[in-house]
Write a structure and sequence with these properties.
422 residues; eight-stranded mixed sheet; 17 helices; globular; Spore Coat Polysaccharide Biosynthesis Protein SpsA, Chain A; alpha/beta
C-alpha cells in the first residue's frame, strides 16, 4: 500500500531546500497567538545557546488557527544571538509553519512533525506546548541532550506541580502506567517530550492509530506507553514548574476523564501480552538540577466534589452493579454516610475500583464511553478524600502519599490479572 502523503507541496519544497537537520523542535498550535511568541523565543534561544553547531529546525504544526498564531510564529525572532552566545552560529535556525492533515487534534499535529523529522533525518526531536508561560531555553537542552549525548530514545518531562494540580495523573495515570509497564515515568501525559528520530519514524508506522482518538487527544500517553512497552530507552528531565491555566480538579471533568482514560484503557488492551508478566517497577534516570519553585494555588471546592460523589451513588449504582463486585459496590455506598473531615476513600478500595473499570472496559460490559464517564463521581470522591487527608501536608509529604498509592497499584496487580483472565 502506498504511504499516505500528509505534507503539502510547499512544505516538501522547504524540506528539499533544507535537506537534513540534526534537531527538530515541534510546536503544535491552535489559537495561541498570545503565548506562542514567548515559546518560539525560548526555543530559538535554547537552540542558539546549547546547540550552536547543530543544524536546527522549528516546526509549527497548526490546526487552522483563526487568530494571529501563524503570523506571530512567522514574525517572532529572538534578539541578536550574540547576546546569548559570544561565538557566531555557523548554521541558521530554519522554520516551517504548516497546517496539519487529518482529524482535528494534537495527535494529527504530532504526526506532521514526525513526518518532517523522518524526511529530514533528524537525530533528536522535541515537542513543546504552544501555551506555555514557564518554558525557558534550558528546557530545550534538557529535552534534547539525553537523546544526542546519552542515546536515550524518549525523554518525559518531570515538573513541579501544585499538590492539587494533575490529580488525574496522580491518582490514575501515573500509578496505573507504572504498575502495568514497570517504569516510573512521573508525568506520562506531560505534553512536552524529547524523542529520537528513530522513534519518530517508529511512531509513523502505526497507521492504525491516526484515524482514532489518539489523533484527537490521546497522543501524549500513547507516545509514552509505546516507547516503554516496545522497549525503547526512556528517561526523564526535570523542567521545574509548568505554568498553565490551572483549574479546580472538580471542574470540566467528564470529557477530560473520558479522553485520557479511554486512551490508557485502550493501550492496556493492546499491550496486554507485555504487561501480564511485569511485576513491580523500576526508576528511570532523571536529568537536570532539582530546585524548588513557586507554584500557583489551586482552588478546590470540596463540598461540590463530595455532593457529586453522593449523587453518583444514587444515580449510577444500578449501572455499576453490572460489573462491580458486591463488596466493592457496598463499600463505595458506605462512604455516602461520611461527612466533611470524616470522608475517606481508602487506597485499596480506589485501586480495586480502577481495576474493575479497566476490566469492564476490556470485556465490553457496556458502552465504553458511558462506562468511563460514569467513573467521574467516584473520581471526584477520591480526590475529595485526598484533599482532606493532605490539606496541611507539604509537597514532599503529598509525594510520599502518591508513592504509597503507586505501591498499592503494584501490590494489587495480581487482583487485576485474575479479574482480567476470568
Amino acid at each position: 500500500m502506498a504511504k499516505e502523503n500528509i505534507l503539502n507541496s510547499a512544505v516538501l519544497k522547504q524540506i528539499e531546500r533544507i535537506k537534513e537537520t540534526d534537531i527538530l523542535i515541534g510546536i503544535p498550535s491552535y489559537n495561541n497567538a498570545h503565548t506562542i511568541g514567548h515559546v518560539i523565543r525560548a526555543v530559538n534561544a535554547g537552540l542558539v545557546k546549547y546547540f550552536p553547531d547543530r543544524r536546527s529546525l522549528i516546526v509549527n504544526s497548526d490546526g487552522g488557527s483563526r487568530d494571529e498564531t501563524t503570523a506571530v510564529v512567522n514574525q517572532t525572532e529572538i534578539e541578536d544571538p550574540r547576546l546569548i552566545m559570544l561565538s557566531h552560529r555557523p548554521n541558521p535556525i530554519h522554520k516551517i509553519v504548516t497546517p496539519y492533515h487529518g482529524l482535528p487534534g494534537k495527535g494529527s499535529a504530532f504526526r506532521t512533525i514526525f513526518q518532517i523529522a523522518e524526511n529530514l533525518h533528524a537525530k533528536a526531536c522535541a515537542v513543546v506546548d504552544s501555551d506555555l508561560r514557564s518554558i525557558t531555553p534550558e528546557w530545550i537542552e534538557l529535552l534534547i541532550k539525553p537523546i544526542l549525548l546519552e542515546k536515550f530514545d524518549y525523554v518525559a518531562p518531570f515538573y513541579l506541580r501544585h499538590k492539587y494540580d494533575g490529580t488525574i495523573t496522580n491518582s490514575i495515570i501515573y500509578p496505573l502506567t507504572r504498575a502495568l509497564y514497570g517504569k516510573r515515568i512521573r508525568q506520562p501525559i506531560g505534553g512536552d517530550f524529547g524523542f529520537s528520530g528513530e522513534l519518530a519514524s517508529h511512531y509513523l508506522t502505526k497507521d492504525e492509530v491516526w484515524g482514532t482518538d489518539v489523533a484527537r487527544y490521546g497522543i501524549d500517553i500513547w507516545m509514552t506507553t509505546t516507547a516503554i512497552a516496545e522497549g525503547y530507552r526512556v528517561c526523564q528531565s526535570f523542567l521545574g514548574a509548568k505554568i498553565h491555566d490551572a483549574k479546580d480538579p472538580g471542574s470540566d471533568l467528564s470529557a477530560m476523564l473520558a479522553q485520557v482514560l479511554g486512551a490508557v484503557f485502550n493501550l492496556a488492551e493492546a499491550h496486554q501480552n507485555i504487561w501480564f508478566s511485569i511485576r513491580g517497577s523500576e526508576p528511570t534516570p532523571i536529568f537536570g538540577f532539582r530546585f524548588e519553585v513557586g507554584l500557583e494555588p489551586i482552588n478546590v471546592n470540596l463540598d461540590r466534589m463530595i455532593n457529586a460523589y453522593r449523587q453518583g451513588i444514587a444515580d449510577l449504582s444500578s449501572v455499576w452493579k453490572k460489573f462491580l463486585p458486591p463488596d466493592i459496590l457496598g463499600n463505595l455506598k458506605k462512604l455516602v454516610g461520611s461527612n466533611g473531615a470524616n470522608f475517606c476513600f481508602p487506597d485499596t478500595l480506589w485501586v480495586k475500583t480502577v481495576f474493575e473499570f479497566l476490566v469492564a472496559h476490556y470485556k465490553n460490559k457496556m458502552d465504553r464511553g458511558h462506562l468511563i464517564k460514569s467513573m467521574a463521581p467516584l473520581y471526584l470522591g477520591r480526590i475529595a478524600s485526598f484533599v482532606i487527608e493532605t490539606y496541611n501536608s507539604t509537597a514532599a509529604e503529598v509525594e510520599n502519599k502518591i508513592e504509597l498509592l503507586c505501591l498499592e497499584y503494584e501490590n494489587l496487580k495480581p487482583y487485576l490479572l485474575e479479574r482480567w483472565r476470568n
